[in-house]
Design brief:
Elements: E1 2-4, H1 11-27, E2 31-34, H2 41-50, E3 52-55, E4 66-69, H3 76-84, E5 88-91, H4 95-109, E6 113-117, H5 123-131, E7 136-139, H6 142-147, E8 156-160, H7 166-179, H8 193-205, E9 211-215, H9 221-232, E10 236-240, E11 257-261, H10 267-278, E12 286-288, H11 301-307
Helix pairs in contact: 4-5, 8-9
């Protein structure tokens, strides 16, 4: 068995999960969370068992309750409604997502029309577009770039959903630059370091494996992409939420099995996969690649305010 490095939770996910855990430690349940705190079924179910209540919209939380915004970010309208309902808000938005929001606002204030490369209906995309609804257009493909209508082709900027990779956005970005030669871009790339690093690890590991197991949920775009990437490289790949989903027949005839995990999947889930595979027989385990340098985002200030 080859364990991919890096794998599993990124700093933004670690922080978001820790926010809900700490609030439950301090206040008990219920602690309300708008949307899934991160896109991982096991994490959501564990927090639910502790007293977290996941709601789709702000008005589902009782007035005055503690409400956590998920790691994917929210629009100003969501903030307005939360304030109107006098909710005690803790914002667990990943700082890298917040950076994209700030860029969108900055470009809009400069009079530019913003193109957002991303997936429609993804929570992060909905939140970002809500910042400047009249000055932003979503483009998912090179074809979208050719069709998009902008007020002035010389006054265009482009930003990116963080959970995409450089490889995923390359073709769309090339189309943007062809059609809008004067396009403005952020000073630093919007792509999340964790997304790219995990894909690079799979790209290096998958060709050495007969089968790859990707730990992650089906609503996690970065986990789905890891499975797709392994398959594109010619390796059988399976996306699993937990060890119970592994089918013994997946491993029939396999000599080398790779394991990785999406950026929303804690390490204990990967270790549960290893334990499950031990039930099928003996094998050697080795780590492949280098772990990520540790990155820690500070906790939201609202937690301290609530505790006092």
């Amino acid at each position: 068995m080859l364990l991919a490095n890096p794998r599993g939770c990124c700093a933004g996910v670690d922080r978001a999960i820790a926010v809900v855990d700490q609030l439950l430690d301090q206040h008990g349940g219920p602690v309300y969370v708008r949307k899934e705190i991160v896109h991982n079924r096991e994490v959501v179910e564990r927090l639910r068992s502790r007293g977290a209540v996941f709601v789709e919209e702000v008005d589902e939380a009782p007035e005055g309750a503690i409400l956590v915004f998920s790691a994917h970010g929210i629009s100003p309208e969501v903030r307005r409604v939360a304030k109107e309902r006098q909710l005690r808000v803790v914002d667990a938005t990943c700082p890298l997502v917040s950076k994209v929001h700030y860029e969108a606002i900055k470009f809009a204030k400069a009079g530019l029309h913003v193109l957002l490369i991303g997936h429609a209906d993804h929570d992060e995309v909905v939140g970002t577009m809500g910042e400047i609804p009249d000055q932003i257009s979503l483009v998912e493909s090179a074809e979208d770039v050719e069709r998009v209508s902008v007020p002035d082709p010389d006054r265009v900027a482009v930003i990116t959903q963080t959970t995409l990779s450089v490889d995923e956005t390359r073709e769309v970005m090339q189309a943007v630059r062809r059609r809008f030669p004067n396009v403005k871009t952020p000073a630093r790339d919007d792509i999340c370091y964790a997304t790219q690093n995990r894909q690079d690890a799979v790209r290096a590991l998958a060709p050495q494996c007969d089968v790859m197991l990707v730990v992650g949920s089906h609503n996690s775009s970065n986990s789905l992409r890891l499975q797709e990437l392994a398959e594109q490289l010619g390796t059988k790949a399976h996306l699993v939420d937990d060890a119970a989903q592994i089918q013994p027949e997946w491993l029939t005839g396999a000599q080398r099995v790779g394991v990785t995990a999406g950026a929303s999947s804690p390490e204990y889930l990967s270790q549960a996969i290893v334990a499950r595979l031990r039930e099928f027989g003996d094998f050697e385990i080795s780590e492949h690649g280098e772990p990520e340098p540790e990155i820690i985002f500070t906790m939201p200030r609202e937690i301290s305010r609530l505790s006092s």
